[in-house]
C-alpha cells in the first residue's frame, strides 16, 4: 500500500518556488524583447549626408524616405547658402519610389530648390508605403566654404490631402556640402 506523508513546511517552499517561477515566466513574456515588430519612425534622409567637392565641381544628393505610410505627394524647399553653392540646370531626377503616373514641378531659385512630386489622382493609385528614393538633385560648389542643406515648408500628404499618418514622428538627416 502507498502511503503519502504530508509535510506542511516542505509544501510551503514548493508553492513559493512555483510562484517565483510563474512570475519570472510572466515577466519575460511581457518584456520588450517580444517578437512583434516595433513601429519605425518616418525618415527623410540626404544621402550622402556630407560631401566635399572642389570649386566648380558638381555632386548629387539623393533624398531618401524610410517607413512612409500612404505617401501620395511630397513637397519641400531645399535651402542652402547661395554664396557657397548653386543648383545646376535640370537639377532634379525623380527617384524609383514613385510609379510612372506622376506630376512633378521643381523651381530653381538662387538659394533654394522648390520641389513637388505627386501621384496623379486619375491613376487610381493609392499612396505608397515603404522605403525608397524620392529624387536626386545636383548642386555645384561655387566658392570655398561650407553650407548646410535643409528642408523648409516640408509636406508629405496622403491621397486625401492630409499629412501622412506618421509625419509627426519624422526624423530628418540634413545634408552638408563642403567646398574646397
Overall description:
The longest helix has 22 residues, at 8-29. Helix content is 12%, strand content 50%. The protein is globular. Mean pLDDT is 84; it is low at 26-31. The protein has a six-stranded mixed β-sheet with strand order 2-11-9-4-7-6, with no helix packed on it. It has one helix at 8-29, and strands at 43-47, 50-53, 58-71, 73-79, 85-94, 102-108, 112-119, 128-141, 145-157, 171-173, 175-179. The protein has a single domain (43-179), classed as Immunoglobulin-like (Sandwich). The termini are far apart. The chain is built from one helix and eleven strands. The protein has 180 residues and is mainly beta. A hairpin with a 3-residue loop joins strand 6 and strand 7 (112-119).
Contiguous uncertain segments of 5+ residues: 26-31
- Tell me the Rg in angstroms: 28 Å
CATH architecture: Sandwich
- The dominant shape is globular
Output the number of helix runs.
1
Quote the CATH topology: Immunoglobulin-like
Count of separate structural domains: 1
Percent of residues in beta strands? over 45%
Portion of residues within helices? 10-25%
- CA-to-CA gap between the ends? 97 Å
Largest sheet entry: 6 strands, mixed
Q: Mean of residue pLDDT?
A: 84
Amino acid at each position: 500500500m502507498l502511503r503519502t506523508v504530508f509535510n506542511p513546511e516542505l509544501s510551503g517552499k514548493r508553492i513559493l518556488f512555483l510562484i517565483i517561477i510563474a512570475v519570472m515566466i510572466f515577466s519575460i513574456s511581457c518584456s520588450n524583447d517580444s517578437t512583434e515588430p516595433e513601429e519605425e519612425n518616418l525618415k527623410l534622409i540626404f544621402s550622402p549626408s556630407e560631401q566635399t567637392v572642389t570649386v566648380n565641381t558638381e555632386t548629387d544628393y539623393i533624398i531618401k524616405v524610410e517607413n512612409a505610410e500612404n505617401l501620395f505627394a511630397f513637397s519641400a524647399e531645399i535651402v542652402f547658402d547661395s554664396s557657397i553653392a548653386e543648383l545646376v540646370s535640370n537639377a532634379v531626377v525623380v527617384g524609383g519610389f514613385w510609379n510612372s503616373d506622376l506630376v512633378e514641378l521643381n523651381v530653381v531659385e538662387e538659394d533654394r530648390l522648390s520641389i513637388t512630386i505627386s501621384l496623379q489622382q486619375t491613376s487610381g493609385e493609392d499612396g505608397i508605403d515603404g522605403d525608397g528614393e524620392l529624387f536626386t538633385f545636383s548642386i555645384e560648389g561655387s566658392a570655398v566654404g561650407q553650407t548646410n542643406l535643409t528642408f523648409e515648408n516640408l509636406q508629405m500628404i496622403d491621397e486625401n490631402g492630409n499629412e501622412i499618418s506618421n509625419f509627426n514622428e519624422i526624423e530628418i538627416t540634413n545634408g552638408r556640402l563642403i567646398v574646397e
